[in-house]
Amino acid sequence: MSQNIIDEVTFLLHSFLLGIIITFVYDGFLILRRLIRHSLFLISLEDMVFWIACAIGVFYMLYEENNGILRWFAVFGAALGMIAYKKSVSPLIIHFVTLIVKRIFWVFAGFFRFLSRPFRFVGKKVYGVWKRFFSKGRKVGKCAKNKLTYRLKLLKITLCKR
């Protein structure tokens, strides 16, 4: 085989691998979106930044390997790499990584719930005392306000008669 053909096949293989890498990185965004809810604006912003970074990566590969000349078989190779990765292992990776991260968060949340038990117990007791104290204070305040209002009306009536 001639060196030119070997170079072209290597270039096709690199474009195929670049397609796999691009899709793998995008799976990271999909995993993040499954873990944390995103607004439509934030999703659009992430996608725009991602595809700009991908365009820079593809341009760099084309510049390094093919002197910046666009070869359609390289685009085909990248698309083939994306499709092959997306149809084969991408759903499994997204599912299992999301599941593992959720389980890790669940374990940490349980651990912190366990550690915060005494503080929650004391907090509930303090809240109960606080609530009782202020509910009685509120009743006393309402009673005092009613008495003062009654006396103020009585004073106005007395002053108006004179």
In terms of DSSP E residues, the strand content is under 5%
Unreliable residue runs: none
Q: Roughly what percent helix?
A: over 70%
Secondary structure category = mainly alpha
Largest sheet: none
Q: What is the rounded Rg?
A: 34 Å
Shape: elongated
Count of all domains: 2
Distance N to C terminus: 123 Å
Query: Mean pLDDT, as a whole number?
Result: 86
Short description:
This protein has 162 residues and is mainly α.
Q: How would you describe the overall organization of this protein?
A:
By secondary structure, this protein is mainly α. It folds into two domains: 3-115, no CATH class; 128-162. It is built from five helices and no strands. Helix 1 (3-35) packs antiparallel against helix 2 (40-66), helix 1 packs across helix 3 (72-88) and helix 1 (3-35) runs parallel beside helix 4. The protein is elongated and about 120 Å long. 7% of the residues are buried.
